[in-house]
Write a structure and sequence with these properties.
20% of the residues lie in helices and 30% in strands. With 87 residues, it is an alpha+beta fold. It has one domain: tt1808, chain A, CATH 3.90.1570. It has a four-stranded mixed beta sheet with strand order 1-2-3-4, covered by helices on one side.
């Protein structure tokens, strides 16, 4: 039987697919944050939104941003979202 290591990523990005449930994906993101993830982005290409998750903070929803910054957790990391928003 294979076992998985009990590790949690420091940073993660979830890209919501058309077949994904937003509610289930939000629950998944909340689970990652509860278990130690320091920064999580849930990207919804259909709504052009980025939900930003950080421990101890309310979820921040960015509407149609051109980019997403990893500061302060990932200094200098910026994700260009233009390719994600294009059909």
């Amino acid at each position: 039987m294979k076992k998985f290591l009990p590790v949690c990523p420091f940073f993660l990005i979830e890209l919501l697919a058309p077949s994904d449930s937003l509610k289930k994906t939000i629950e998944k993101m909340e689970g990652y944050i509860a278990n130690g993830t320091r920064l999580g982005w849930l990207i919804d290409p259909e709504k052009k939104q980025v939900h930003v998750y950080r421990p101890g903070q309310p979820v921040q929803i960015l509407d149609n941003p051109q980019s997403a910054s990893g500061d302060p957790e990932l200094p200098g990391f910026v994700l260009d979202l233009d390719p994600v928003w294009r059909p």
